[in-house]
Design brief:
112 residues, mainly alpha, Arc Repressor Mutant, subunit A, 71% helix
């Protein structure tokens, strides 16, 4: 998953990749990571997108493809849902405020 973020992973594919049943993979992810595998994948992709928004001049469309979304609009919807602001707004936000946005999101996830 980490080595191929653009791969259109499903629970079946992840389970096959690690040699576990879907049920065992799901249970172990929740036990060790704290959330189901697909939720983890989505959150990890948003973390990758945030890093690229901060540290590269890649377009949002290029970042979308890099992290496994078929279009800029698909990434924008997912990013806004999870991070709370659009990728364009996040990129335009001063660095110290971006950290606060990401910290709020992390705290909200831990509280749920």
């Amino acid at each position: 998953m980490h080595s191929r973020p653009a791969q259109p992973w499903s629970l079946d594919e992840l389970a096959r990749e690690v040699g576990l049943s879907k049920t065992i993979l799901h249970e172990r992810f929740i036990e060790f990571v704290g959330c189901p595998p697909i939720q983890y994948l989505t959150e990890w992709r948003m973390q990758l997108a945030a890093e690229r928004l901060q540290n590269s001049s890649d377009t949002i469309a290029e970042i979308a493809l890099y992290v496994g979304y078929g279009s800029e609009s698909a990434l924008s919807r997912a990013f806004k849902r999870l991070v709370g602001v659009s990728p364009a707004t996040f990129r335009a936000t001063p660095a110290h405020e971006r950290r606060a946005i990401l910290d709020r999101r992390s705290q909200a996830r831990l509280a749920s």
